[in-house]
Amino acid sequence: MDRIYLDNAATTAVSPEVLEAMLPYFTQCFGNPSSIHSTGRDARRVVDAARRQVAAAIGAQPQEIYFTAGGSESDNWAIKGTAFAKKSRGNHIITSAIEHHAVLHTCAWLEKQGFEVTYLPVDEFGRVRVEDVEKAITDKTILITIMAANNEIGTIQPIAEIGKLAHDKGILFHTDAVQAIGAMPIDVNAMHIDMLSMSGHKFHGPKGIGALYIRKGVKIDQYLHGGAQERGQRAGTENLAGIVGMGKAIEIATQHLEENARRLTVLRDKLIDGILAEIPDVRLNGHRTQRLPNNVNVSVRYVEGEALLLRLDLAGIAGSSGSACTSGSLDPSHVLLAIGLPHEIAHGSLRLSLGTDTTEAEIDEVLDKLPGIVKNLRDMSPLNAYQQSLNASCPFDHDHGHGGDDAE
What we know:
This protein is of the alpha/beta class. It has helices at 16-22, 24-27, 38-58, 71-85, 101-112, 130-136, 159-169, 229-232, 240-255, 257-278, 305-314, 334-338, 343-346, 360-379, 382-390; strands at residues 4-5, 65-68, 92-96, 116-120, 141-145, 172-176, 195-199, 210-214, 282-284, 295-300, 317-318, 349-353.
């Protein structure tokens, strides 16, 4: 049975072109970029070329790109590095309640070190209000960190507006763009971004490689100590093959960004419309249009999310119930709770994230199988029978227009 992979928000397959570009750097061109002999110099040229590829994808300069082990490290470095570099000026950080845990847990750790953090609420579609950001700013605010697009519900944030506000106030602005890179256009200058995190495996690059953009002139504390790699800012021998793969992957992703986004948006909307039309008591989570082109997130009432995922897996369909980083947790998604869903509905969430290889035939197959799976699970659920009899005159609101153009 051919499997249908719809968990691209968790990770993507390394593309054949990326793998081909990487292979020589495991065996033939394996030099340490810090070595001064010709083999090392060859490796250094390759790292510099990849740095240019990453920089070009976001409108940055090559010297503003620092390679890391992934998005979580980049988030940690940006936030902790800013906090300790700026602590003499202030100790206040602003973020949102729906950030990735790489941001939230880092902020929580900083609170234990004496920093103050404001966790902004979001609206019912998962959007941060720019006016809430402005109201939260104090004379001690040193950093605003808001993600470009949410990894669970796909809602795109008003990054350019928040970035401009931060710049007008003289505050550094960081964005976790892990889900956004390769899915939506990013220009660090037009969006007034001072620091930006990304991860190669989200756009068909390898795992274990990421990058942090730091605007020229922005000074933050060093994250890893030991060697002089990454211009003295991030110690550790460079992941040569990973860096090559990330450079190639981001180049391909940005070259075909508009084309892929248009195609995926059509498939995304077909999947959303089909689910809402064919399955009762379903709610779309996130903004209907201001969302990533590959993201579908729904809550299915009277069904437990883990059971739904297992049934889909048996049917040859891979999805998720939210962030892969919290998939082992029994707690409902903090993102779904933040947009106002009660626990019992948040527990029944399903995220289907499309990829560049997703086909319309696969979407049709999901729409063919998913209604039957949901019906079967509901038929076995005593909660469903109880709630249906209790609420016969008050059906669950599965507003098909949720998150429409007038949502803002």
